[in-house]
Structures are given as C-alpha cells and as structure tokens.
Amino acid sequence: KLGMAFKKDENFGEWYSEVVVNSEMIEYYDISGCYILRPWAMEIWELLKEFFDAEIKKLKLKPYYFPLFVTENVLQKEKDHIEGFAPEVAWVTKSGKSDLEAPIAIRPTSETVMYPYFSKWIRSHRDLPLKCNQWCNVVRWEFSNPTPFIRSREFLWQEGHTVFATKEEADEEVLQILELYRRIYEEFLAVPVYKGRKSEMEKFAGGLYTTSVEAFIPNTGRGIQGATSHCLGQNFAKMFDITFENEKGERSMVWQNSWAYTTRSIGVMVMTHGDDKGLVLPPRVAPIQVIVIPVPFKDADTTAIKGACESTVYTLNQAGIRADLDARENYSPGWKYSQWEMKGVPLRIEIGPKDLANKQVRIVRRDNGAKVDIPSTDVVEQVGALLEGIQANLLETAKQKRDACIKTISTWDEFIGALNDKKLILAPWCDEEEVEKDVKARTKGELGAAKTLCTPFDQPDLPAGTVCFASGKPAQKWSFWGRSY
Ligand SMILES: O=C1CCCN[C@@H]1CCCn1cnc2cc(F)c(F)cc2c1=O
Ligand SMILES: [Mg+2]
C-alpha cells in the first residue's frame, strides 16, 4: 500500500509515525521506546557525522570509546548531578541466572565514566587541553510518550568532553561547538534554530551554564532542544579531583565543557519538512539526491531508454551527486514516483521515448512539484543548481513558518493567549527562578507546562521601564517561552 493515511495538519502524531515507517527510516520494535534505525535513517546520521567529525578534528578533538557500564557508587558520585535523573537510569543486575554482586548502570551520559580517568591522565598544564569525543549510544529509561528519533530509551549521539587550563578557553569552545550545531541544523537539515542560553533552572544542574540551539515545531506549537553545549566550570573538577600543576608549579583546578547532539536531529528534520506525500529530504542529507526512472512505452526501445538512464546516473555520480537508478521491472513508473516521493528524494528524473528522441530529460522537484525538461547535456549543471535551490527553499520556507509562529507579548493574558495559539513566545522576563517556577505551576495541564526555552543571544532592545510579563518586576531580558518536547 502506498500513500499516507494521515494528514500532517490533521493528525500530526499519526502522520509522523507513518512517515518515518513508510519512508523506511524506522521499524517499530517490541520494546517500548526502542526503534530500529534502518539505512534511510542511518545514512542521514552518517552524513551528519561525516561533517561534524571532520569539523571537531579541526578543533583537535580525539576519538575515544569508554565502557557502556558504570558502577553505582561512581554514577552517584555527586548527588546534585544526577538527583532528578535517577528514575531514568537502567541497571544490569544479573548475568545468566546469578545476581551481580553490585548492580551496574548503563550509561545515560558519560561524565562519571570518563572523569575519574581525566583525573588520572591530567597532571600538568602540558596535559591540557584534553579533548575527548565519543560517538556512541546512551540509555535513559524515560516514561513520557516515546517518539521515534525525538524521545527514545536508547539513542545515538556524540558527546564531547573537553578540559582546559582557563575559563576563557572553555568559554570560547562552548560557542565554537554551538556554531557547529547551528550549521548542522541550518546548513544540512535546513531547520532554523535560535542560539541561546538556558535559564538557571533549565540548565544542566552539574554545570556552570548551558547554551543550546532551539528549534520549533509549528504543527504542535512546541519548542525542541536541538543540541546543547555546556560550560561545566570547575564543578566536575572539584567532584573528581581533576587538577593540574600550572607553569608556576601551583596546583589548579581545570575548566571543562561537555556538548552533544543526537539522532533527535533527524526527527526534527522530518517534522519540519515532511508533507502529506511523506518525507521531504534536504539534499545535503539525502542518501539519494536524484532517482532516475525509465518510462517505457509499449513498442518503444526500452533498451535505449534504460541505457540513457544508466548513463545519466553515471554522469551524475561522476559529478559527486548521489544519483540512483530505479529500473525495477515489477513496478510501474507511477508507483515508483509515489514511493520515492514517500522517501523524500529531492529530485526525480524521468526518461521516456519522447525525452530520448528530444535528447532531454524531465526533472521533477519533490519540494514544490515543479517539472522541467532540460537537455541531457545540461543535466549535471541543472541538477546541481536545482539541489542548491531545494536546500535553500526548504530552509527559507521553514524559517517563514517558524517566524509566523513567534508572538512577542508583554502581559500575562497575552502570554496565555499565545500559548493556547501554539505560539513560540518572546517575553520580557525579570530572570527570577521563582517566577519561572510560578509560570510552570500556573500553566500545568495535559499539554504540559510552559517553560523557558532559551534566552536568545540575539536580544531585541529592551526599553527602560519594561516589566516582566509574569511578575511585573523590571524585565532583565527577552526570553523564548513555550511548551516543549
Ligand atoms: O548534555 C550533555 C552533553 C553531553 C554530556 N552530558 C551532558 C549533560 C547530560 C545531562 N543529563 C541528562 N540526562 C541524564 C539522565 C540520567 F539518567 C543521568 F543519570 C544523568 C543525566 C544527565 O547528566
Ligand atoms: Mg532527559
């Protein structure tokens, strides 16, 4: 069966589940919150990884792999680091029939796995900076509604953990990595994001401050954290005794960062660009950018048509374009069109007897359905230009949709109205945690409470005398508020 049973603007949740399955990204698994990532998803993950890994290698990050398991006493090294997270930790308690002497946790994140060894490896300033990155899976036994890519009990990520002699170096790297995350979203996934700082309440409790890139899903009116880059300060250095002897022979504590993005990024892309025909892939992350389909005609020369298709694929591949041929005999062209549209392939090239005779090919765009006939000799240049056009169009369209959801408010009533209208709310805030807690309490409900998403680095000007929408106290900053994933 092809085609979508659910419409994006009518049943978003069902639409999303259907798209990720019909496009062959995901197969549901018999453990709740766990999903099979099929090639159509893993190839996207690998394209993102290729970019990000090359970029952090330029920043001198070294690849590591730490164990999946961590002992109970090490995991609980510092109460405030994992206090609220305890229910999410998955434990191994047996091997075969026999109980383990002590339960072993499966890593939900790797600070406690890594930092005892950072303490051992770092003695002198000459051992700094230490720059560790690992690509791995983590497990968090969450209970809120599982969603493929967006919220799963196991997911893939990279986690960077860096150690510096000075706060200045750490502060600089936090922003360098955040910029890479912005590039992943805007330049690859064509998803607009805001860079900002998390509030004291929303930040990583174990750190000094948290920055993030924040996306927004217009269909649900929910913000979603795209990636996060923390400055940990010297908190973990204290916890794990990570000190070094500086040039003057004094013992000092190190300054640390940690940062991650995850397979959630693929889900954000699906939600942003997908339509009622299925997935719409930004060309820079499309495993197949162009699918070439022969269109045979009753007595036409099918061999010549297939030959033209094969040479078109070859020519495109030689130009570094990810093109493929769908010459399956057991499916009609029409069926193939629908299937590759469902999988979100950015361009389709059709070659039939007429095209052959006119030495042209027909190109069809997935994003806006536009059809264009071009001379076969121009195919590389035209396809290249079309792919760039699609990439830009997807980002621009997503930006306009997101911007249309932004509501700048100044009073509580306006805030509630905007929340009910599924808006991304920009509000003047007094920056007091009590007020943040109060807003959460006053907006509790089955759709979830409103919270601060981030304080965007790019601050609109705040006229003197502006008061906080929730407390009436003098506003200190503009922050994004809303419901979130
Ligand atoms: O967000 C990052 C970037 C990569 C490295 N880790 C940091 C902070 C992770 C915050 N966090 C997030 N979730 C957790 C879940 C747990 F079950 C648990 F024991 C601990 C945590 C936890 O520390
Ligand atoms: Mg969590």
Give me the secondary-structure topology.
Elements: H1 12-22, E1 26-28, E2 35-37, H2 39-58, E3 62-63, E4 69-71, H3 72-75, H4 79-82, E5 91-95, E6 98-106, H5 111-121, E7 130-139, E8 154-164, H6 167-188, E9 194-197, E10 209-217, E11 222-233, H7 235-240, E12 243-245, E13 251-253, E14 255-262, H8 264-273, E15 290-294, H9 302-318, E16 323-325, H10 333-342, E17 347-351, H11 353-357, E18 360-365, E19 371-375, H12 379-404, E20 406-408, H13 412-420, E21 424-429, H14 433-442, E22 451-456, E23 477-484
Parallel strand pairs: 3-7, 11-23, 15-16, 15-17, 20-21
Antiparallel strand pairs: 1-2, 4-6, 5-6, 7-8, 8-14, 9-10, 9-22, 10-11, 11-14, 12-13, 17-18, 18-19, 21-23, 22-23
Helix pairs in contact: 2-6
The site of ligand 86U has 15 residues, from strand 11 and strand 14.
What is the terminal-to-terminal distance? 31 Å
Major beta sheet, specifics? 5 strands, mixed, barrel
Number of strands: 23
The overall pLDDT, averaged over residues, is: 97
Query: Would you tell me the structural class of the helices and strands?
Result: alpha+beta
Low-confidence stretches: none
The residue fraction in helices comes out at 25-40%
Radius of gyration: 25 Å
Ligand kinds: ligand 86U, magnesium ion
| Shape designation | globular
Query: How large is the share of residues in beta strands?
Result: 25-35%
The largest sheet has its strands arranged as 9-10-11-23-22
What's the tally of helices? 14
